[in-house]
Amino acid sequence: MNLERRSLTQYPESAPLFNIIGSAFARLGAFDVAVTTFLYALERDPKNVNVHNNLGESYGRLGNYQAALTSFRNATDLDPQFSKAFYNMANTFFALGDTAAAIDIYKKSIALKPGFAPASNNLGAAYLKAGQISEAFQSFARALRLNPQHEEAFANLYNLSIQCPWQRREFLKLRKRVQPFSGVKTRILALIDAYIHEASASVEAELSALKLAERRNAFNALSAADQIFCSAYYKLI
């Protein structure tokens, strides 16, 4: 708060500065203070689309979805090409349970920025909630193709293949073309693979020096949810 007061005194007309300060408060989780700061910025520059969008995000984190929608609409009215504001608006409609509106606006966001994987993933979630299974699968698959390390899209595809066995073959085809895990997580999953399959040929050379107890420790180090996910996933493969 002292930073905000000093900035008010020294830079009273700087909307971009207050947008930065508001974003900092939002990152700290002080969304109520962020809202106040963004509103102050808009008093200085009512047409600043980034401030409108950031204000909407903070309203959304506070659960004030109608105010969030108003802010996102203000942003998109000022800049009809602002894909991020459309994406955030779609997320808000989805949170409100208006799946049809969410689907429509996710499509607008994707049309403006086709390479943004989270929008395709969230569109898939909206399609799934609407019971449009094929469309959901294609959206999740698009997200994973755009970002092969998008673990949420991968998990969504996996879960969909479990719920809908007729999608399993397509999931396995896609899984062969992409590898969503890298770095440390790849190593952990390799350990799990070895643990479940008793050191399968694909990883036996790498893990030949590891004892089964070490593999078990790696598996046990995961959360219960991750254990269930990884166990089921590797048994499926």
Give your account of this protein's structure.
By secondary structure, the chain is mainly α. The chain has a domain at 1-80: Serine Threonine Protein Phosphatase 5, Tetratricopeptide repeat (Alpha Horseshoe). The protein has 15 helices and no strands. α12 (183-197) packs across α15 (224-236). The longest helix is centred in the C-terminal third of the chain and has 15 residues, at 183-197.
Characteristic terms for this protein:
237 residues; mainly alpha; Serine Threonine Protein Phosphatase 5, Tetratricopeptide repeat; 15 helices; 78% helix; elongated
Summary of the model, kept short:
The protein has 237 residues and is mainly alpha-helical. It has helices at residues 2-10, 15-27, 31-44, 49-61, 65-78, 83-96, 99-112, 117-129, 133-146, 151-163, 168-177, 183-197, 201-207, 212-220, 224-236.
Instruction: Give the topology string: H per helix, E per strand.
Output: HHHHHHHHHHHHHHH
What structural class should be given to the helix and strand makeup?
mainly alpha
According to CATH, what is the topology of the domain at 1-80?
Serine Threonine Protein Phosphatase 5, Tetratricopeptide repeat
User: How many extended strands?
Assistant: 0
Fraction in helix: over 70%
Biggest sheet, open or closed, and with what strands and sense?
none
